[in-house]
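Hello again, I could really use a second opinion on something today. I've been staring at a protein lately and its backbone has me curious. Can you walk me through what the tokens say about the fold? Take your time with it, there's no hurry, and the full record follows here:
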Amino acid sequence: MQSLTANIAKTKFGDLLLKVQREPIQISKNGSPVAVVMSCEEFEQLENLKMMMIKSRFEQAENDITAGNTIDGDKFMNDLDNGKFD
């Protein structure tokens, strides 16, 4: 992934818009990454992928409940908060 400083991204915004059609571009400020700019198409694909994963998790939970495989809600929420399912 290419990286640009915030200043270059600002002064060459037109070029940035062209570059993000090919690949996401990381924007850095004061040497630290602060953002990623991507095409609308790539963003929509990412959002669709996230939605498919969420649906899959709900379907799995539904199957577990149907099969009688339930878990403690508090434990599940703690695991979720701790990134177990990421």
User: Anything to note?
Assistant: The longest strand covers residues 32-37. The chain is about 55% helix and 15% strand. The CA atoms of residues 39 and 50 lie 17 Å apart. The chain has two domains: 2-38, 41-81.
